[in-house]
Amino acid sequence: MAQKRLMQELRSLQKEKWVEITTDETNLLKWRIGLWVVNPDSVWHGAFLKAEMRFPSDYPYQPPVFKFLTPNIIHPNVYSDGNLCISILHKPGEDEQSGELASERWNVLHGVESVLRSVLLLMDDPEINSAANVDASVMYRDDRAQYNALAKATVAATKKSIPAGVRMPSMDELTPVPVKPIDDDADFWNMTDEEEDFGGSDSDENMDDFEEEEEEDEEEDEDDK
């Protein structure tokens, strides 16, 4: 079940330009990931963040584990060892201790893509009230300039370890190609004069016969009077 689901997700994600995925041919439950931060408004813009995802044998009923391999990421929700604290990767069901609702946590409808997009969103909008790195949380709240400087230093460092042949996609490359609407009957408005008849001639002839019969009936009624 897990491997079949992961193969389907892998094929879909390999079409995306904002993520690079490498898998172990002998172990599909372990993925190496490269995430591009393509949001131009992000302090992490331009970063190529390396990470690892490990999937349980009962995936998708249980969530995967996400860990950054890029070192020295200073972020409120990233532990010093690179492990990420994010609600979507917490086990299914409500948690009274943390106050997280079931809708915020993992469920079978989630997948790798939803996790990766959530990670990118969290990088720009950290949860400072449930911090994995308290110092980074305080810095983000009280000294944003220093926080941003450290983030940009990490961005610069990641650019030195981008794999050969890999580049960040442009925004144009990430924009969906608009689908041209299909004209179901393109020839409808190009009909010839002959076709504009719509078969009305036969009906007109029948109507003439009907009107003649009405006139004859009216004459007979007058004679009877």
From TrEMBL:
Annotated segments matching region Disordered: 173-225
InterPro entries named in the record: Ub_conjugating_enzyme, UBC, UBQ-conjugating_enzyme/RWD
Organism of this sequence: Hypocrea virens (strain Gv29-8 / FGSC 10586) (Gliocladium virens)
SUPFAM superfamilies named among the record's database cross-references: UBC-like
Biased composition annotated in UniProt, kind: Acidic residues: 184-225
PANTHER family xref list: UBIQUITIN-CONJUGATING ENZYME E2
Key words of the record: Ubl conjugation pathway
Superkingdom field: Eukaryota
Signal peptide segment: none
Name this protein carries in UniProt: UBC core domain-containing protein
Domain UBC core: 1-160
